[in-house]
Amino acid sequence: MSIIQTGLDKKIQINGIKLSTKLVQINLLNGSLPENTRPLFFRLLSQNQINIPFILLTGMGENILGSCCVESEDINRVKKLIDKEPTLKQNIEFIPSVGALSIFPHHSNLKLLGLSFYLFGKQRLPLYGMASSISSLTFITNYSQLDEAVSILLEHIDLPPNHAPFRPEIHVIQKKR
Amino acid sequence: METFAVYWEPKPKTYGFKEVIDLSLLNIEIKPGKMSQWGLMLMELADLDFGFHLILAKYSTHQKFRLYILLEKPWADHVLSYIGRKIDLDSEKDFHLTYPVELISFQGPHFGDRYGIADTAFKALDGQGVPILITVCSGAAVYIVLPEKKLKEARPLLLEAFEVP
Q1: How many domains, chain A?
Q2: Successive 10-residue mean pLDDT values, chain B, 165 residues
Q3: For residue A4, is pLDDT > 50?
Q4: Chain A 134-173, CB below 8 Å of chain B: which residues?
Q5: Deepest in the core among A4, A49, A169, B65, taking most CB within 10 A?
Q6: Which pLDDT value is given to residue B93?
Q7: In chain B, what are the domains?
Q8: Does the predicted model carry a pTM greater than 0.90?
């Protein structure tokens, strides 16, 4: 497959790249996970006002039922909650220090995803999860490699003039009155 | 410096629900070291110029992951035919097509920043005989993929749990 065939010779124009703060990925292992474990996990986090900015779950019988990410500042609280629930404790693993890189817009077209897979795969950048949203594609990789991921992408992607990858400066949290 | 805003509502507001039926769900295992090869194939597929409804890649183990593409059935047939020319589908045990499936998705203010959104959706559907094939919460959007004919059961349950304009 030649580079010209796949369009890698032309840069793709996008509108932006957003980087997250430091996150921890939590993998829910399928193993012998009792049916009520997933609801228990999400209920515990909700009751303790812990946000989960990224969730991927499938019910399609694989080793890992799904994964989600929480802010690294919340992980000790999450671990304490899980420690009290033996069924959860046995079926959960953590990937510390991950980050989310979102690129937009995807225009519901596979080109941007294909390019990202090609570039990240070639550079052996670890990928722990990916999902589309309304307009963006979000990739989860090592937090320490987010800047490297951006550099890899920018070799084949163009941002609008005067735009740079950004980290949100406003942190919205929800609290019960 | 961080700025904090406080936001709470008893029943999460949404901007409305989007529903699509009669979709195909492709499920492909991407083995370690094959990501760049699949990337090139996806770029070629993009030239067919079809739209996907949802894409996700779920980490499996040891740098293996599963790619799911949710798209209209006629396009799924094109994708299968393309991939069939590139790899031997009969020998690829880890390539699945599920058809038909249904999608309900919604978004709301600051959904990505607020706790309890996923739990509200799961509480609405769990124990009601509505199996969920896939759930994705990314950005401010929630996507729920359901088996055939389950959307009509899921809709009223979600409409009760969330506020719709």
Answers
A1: 2
A2: 65 94 94 90 90 93 86 90 76 79 94 90 90 94 96 96 92
A3: no
A4: 134, 136-138, 140, 169-173
A5: B65
A6: 61
A7: 23-99 (3.30.70.260), 101-161 (3.30.2130.10)
A8: yes
- What range defines the domain where residue A116 resides? 7-20+97-158
CATH number of the domain within which A64 lies: 3.30.70
A84 and A30 in one domain?
Answer: yes
Same domain, A144 and A132: yes
pLDDT value of position A31: 59
Query: Would you say residue A77 lies in a domain?
Result: yes
Could you give the ipTM of this predicted complex?
0.92
DSSP for chain B, written as a single string: --EEEE---SS-B-S-EEEEEEEEEEEEEE-TT-HHHHHHHHHHHHTT---EEEEEEEE-STT-EEEEEEEEHHHHHHHHHHHHHHS-TTT-TTEEEEEEEEEEEEE-TTGGG-TTHHHHHHHHHTTTT---SEEEEETTEEEEEEETT-HHHHHHHHHHHSB--
Is A131 close to B46, i.e. CB distance below 8 A? no
Average pLDDT over every residue of A119-132: 95
CB contact under 8 A, A174 and B7: yes
Examine the pLDDT at A137 and tell me if it is beyond 70.
Answer: yes
Give the residue from A64, A112, A133 with the most B CB atoms within 10 Å of its CB, the best one to mutate.
A133
Interface check for B93 against chain A (CB to CB < 8 A): the answer is: no
Inspect the interface and report whether the beta carbons of A43 and B123 lie closer than 8 Å: yes
Looking at every residue in chain A, the average pLDDT score rounds to 89
Q: What is the pLDDT of residues B27-38, one digit of tens each?
A: 998 988 899 999
- Is residue A132 pLDDT above 80, yes or no? yes
